[in-house]
Structure formats: C-alpha cells, structure tokens
Write a structure and sequence with these properties.
Length: 386
C-alpha cells in the first residue's frame, strides 16, 4: 500500500528526526508496441504512466545511505559507502538500491551519505516497470545529492546496469529510458541503438487502458534471459551485431537455416521492429485501424513465435478486441509470462471494456483483473530541492 507524498514526508520526519529537503519522482511505463526488441538494438514505443515512485531525501553527513521502504512495512537498509556493495540476503527491494549505488560507484561518482524514504504506486510484478521507476528515481537522487548531475539517458543506463549486473536480469534499456524521458501526452519512439527519443502525440480520441491480469511472474528466473540468448544466437548466425540489422527479406529462408525455435524468435523480433516503426507512423497519422492491426499482429507474434503470453492474457486480449474492433488496439505489454494487457480504447467504449472484463474474466481464469485508465506522463524529475 503506497503512501501519499504528505504521508511519506511525515514518515520521513518521524523516522529520521528531521525533515526531508529533496523530493524526486520517476514513473512506471506501458509499452504500446515493440516487445523484446530493445536488447536487439531495435525500436520500442512506450509511454510513461501516471503511477510513480517517490524518493524523499536529506544528506546525513555520514558515510552511509540509510533507506526506509514505506511500502514494505518500513523495512530498512543501511549501505556503507566505504565498503564493497554486497547483495542483501533478505530484501529484494534493497538490491535495487544497492545495485544503483554500485553502478554509480563504478562510474566514479562519489556518493554522499543520505537518508531516504521511498514509496510508490506502480503495481509491482505486473510488467509496468516498478523496478525501473525505483532505479531511475534513485539515480536522480544520488547524482543530485552528490552534485554530479547526469543526463537522463545516463541515469537510465545506470539503472539498466544495476538490473543487469547486480539484480541479475539481462533486460534492455526501454524501461529505464522511458521512465527517465517520458513526455506528457505522448508516446515515445525509442531507437534502442542510438537512444534517440521521438515524441509521438497520443490521439485525443483514445484512452490508454491497462488491464492487470494479476498473473504474476518476475523476469528474474523466468524465460527472459533465455529469450535474449536465443536472439543473440540468431544474430550470430547471420553475422550481424544485433537482430535490428536484419529485415524480413534477409530472413526469407530462416526455417531452413535455423532450428524451429530460434527461427521463430528471430522472426518475432524482425517483424516486431517493422511493426513498431509502422505503428509510430500510424499514431502520428491518426490511422487507428492500421494501429489496431499492428497491435493484433504483435500479440499473435508474442503468442506464437516468441511464446511469452499465457492463456489468461490471450483471453483478455480477445475479449477486449471483441469490444473495440478496429476502433482501437490491444495486446500484451511488457516482458511476458503474466502481467498486463494494454488497450487503446475509444472513450465511449471504456465502460463496456470494464463491464466485459468484470463479467467474464474471473470465471475464465479464476482471477480478478484490475483496470486502470492512464495518462501518458512526463519522465523523472526533481520535484523539490533546497
Ligand atoms: C522487460 C525488460 F525490462 C525490457 O528491457 C524489455 O525487454 C521488455 O521486458 C520486453 O519488451 O520490461
């Protein structure tokens, strides 16, 4: 259960016996299209959402970072700045903090001792990048307090390094980059090779609806890292740096050249990159029926070629598609194996989507879905500083 910012300030003052004088914020994200393309140097089209992680802070004049996790029953961590950073044996949330500290230290950023209180409302384990929101808000916190400002892209890379080298998930750059560089009212087309970010305005007539299937599965220990290895094997076969460097013609004979599984993984990434670029164009042109088709194809490709969807998610996608048809788009979003569906829904159909899900999903899956209507939001920011 997350706290309001006012409650978090009260908690900070009560716990650390002094008021916080910095406040940082970073959002979660939903990806509209371009799944498992980021670590293949490809294209993604996410938007930041109006669910955030908040960090309150003050310098403590000590050689230690003291952290209070409001959403975890006020669990605490202390990270000495004078010793090597070790994994926390019990608290996974603490490993994201420690990972960011280590990643900054490896870039020779001299951190200062500080007290932090953290709370956020990004749903966890749902594929909406609560961990990236935490990493990015912390990257902004530590570099600001150390008076060593970093670009938002570098803060995003720092968070990714924490994830890859400390937490142990070989994720790409999408989640951290959109959390850092989201733009209010816009999706962002990201070239994950150059890290160029281009805003694409969201059509006024569509609501961004996120449906949490409540099928939970973390990325660490899941099939995520295996998918990445399969993609790298595919790129190696073709002698290219990354699958980004292939187009559909280059893989015309793929099923005679590669084993069936690797061939389908490669086909997903190559076609998904093309769909993502086409979807950004369709959004910009307000061409909703093309967008609708591209999102449907993306879902089918994730289901059949990349094999990262699960039956309750496939069911939600077909249920929503039955309501909105080609007036909007719907697909699974995020790393897969559970988590959320994203739907772009005409405002007059949002209630019907909610009604259909409430009426049918529980008996089909044994689960209750949460439905959120989100606003495409701005990326990380320093909310207050002395
Ligand atoms: C997760 C990862 F963290 C991202 O880098 C990305 O690969 C995504 O899964 C799939 O598109 O969110």
């Amino acid at each position: 259960m997350s706290l309001t910012v006012a409650e978090l300030h009260q908690l900070f003052s009560a716990h650390f016996k002094a008021a916080a004088d910095y406040h940082f914020r970073a959002p979660g994200r939903v990806n509209l299209i371009g799944e498992h393309t980021d670590y293949n140097d490809g294209f993604v089209l996410p938007c930041a959402i109006d669910f955030d992680t908040h960090v309150l802070a003050r310098k403590n004049g000590l050689n230690v970072i003291r952290v209070l996790a409001a959403d975890y029953d006020n669990q605490q961590d202390e990270i000495p700045l004078t010793a090597a950073i070790e994994h926390h044996a019990d608290y996974q949330w603490a490993n994201y903090v420690r990972g960011v500290v280590q990643s900054l230290q490896r870039q020779n950023i001299e951190l200062v001792g500080c007290d932090l209180a953290i709370s956020g409302n990004v749903p966890q384990g749902a594929g909406l990048s609560s961990s990236a929101a935490l990493e990015v808000s912390l990257g902004l916190t530590f570099t600001t307090l150390a008076e060593q400002p970093m670009s938002l892209a570098q803060i995003a890379l720092t968070g990714q390094q924490a994830e890859n080298h400390f937490v142990g998930c070989n994720s790409g750059i999408m989640d951290q980059l959109i959390s850092a560089q989201g733009q209010q009212g816009n999706a962002v087309l990201i070239d994950c090779r150059s890290l160029a970010c281009d805003a694409v305005a969201m059509p006024q007539e569509l609501a961004v609806v996120i449906i949490n299937s409540n099928v939970k599965r973390g990325l660490v220990g899941s099939e995520y890292n295996t998918r990445r290895e399969q993609c790298e094997a595919g790129a190696a076969h073709y002698g290219v740096k990354a699958l980004r460097d292939l187009d559909i013609d280059a893989i015309a004979n793929i099923f005679t050249e590669l084993d069936d599984v690797t061939a389908r993984r490669v086909r997903h990434v190559v076609t998904e990159n093309a769909r993502t670029l086409a979807a950004a164009q369709a959004l910009a042109n307000d061409d909703i029926s093309t967008l609708s088709q591209l999102m449907a194809q993306s879902h089918a490709s994730m289901r059949d070629d990349f094999e990262i969807t699960v039956p309750p998610i496939d069911y939600l996608v077909s249920l929503v598609h039955g309501v909105i048809g080609n007036r909007g788009g719907v697909r699974m979003t995020g790393g897969g194996f559970g988590g959320c569906v994203v739907a772009l829904v005409p405002h007059d159909l949002v209630d019907e989507v909610k009604t259909q899900i409430a009426a049918n999903y529980p008996q089909h899956s044994g689960l209750v879905a949460d439905v959120f209507v989100c606003q495409p939001s701005a990326g990380a920011e320093i909310v207050t500083q002395p």
